[in-house]
Write a structure and sequence with these properties.
111 residues; mainly alpha
Length: 111
């Protein structure tokens, strides 16, 4: 299968899945009751869940495998170590932005 064919297959499968989710949501009979107080969670637990979700996202892995090789020296000894370093650097930068985003100046302040 060519790359264009694989891309089209993934695109149409994704569109069909989104349509399926939309139909399931429209058929559901759930109500949105905002009268109850939401349970409070520890910030460290929320941060841990967000970090693991971000790190384990397959789209993130695909992005890294498509984007990071542009910055790797293939004539160096360890290509895998370079990709691991760049991926770790990117993840740590993202974690820093997540952790300190709420303290940033007004126009860029995280909600």
């Amino acid at each position: 299968m060519s790359s264009a064919g694989a891309f089209a297959a993934v695109k149409y499968l994704g569109a069909a899945y989104l349509i399926y989710l939309g139909v399931q949501k429209l058929r559901g009979v759930e109500s949105l009751d905002l009268s109850e107080e939401a349970p409070r969670a520890k910030l460290s637990r929320v941060f841990g869940k967000a970090s693991s979700s971000m790190s384990l996202n397959p789209k993130t892995a695909l992005f890294f495998f498509a984007f990071l090789p542009q910055f790797v020296d293939f004539f160096a000894r360890s290509v895998a170590l370079q990709i691991l370093f760049l991926g770790t650097l990117s993840q740590s930068w993202e974690l820093r932005a997540t952790a300190f985003g709420r303290y940033s100046p007004e126009p860029w302040r995280a909600a």
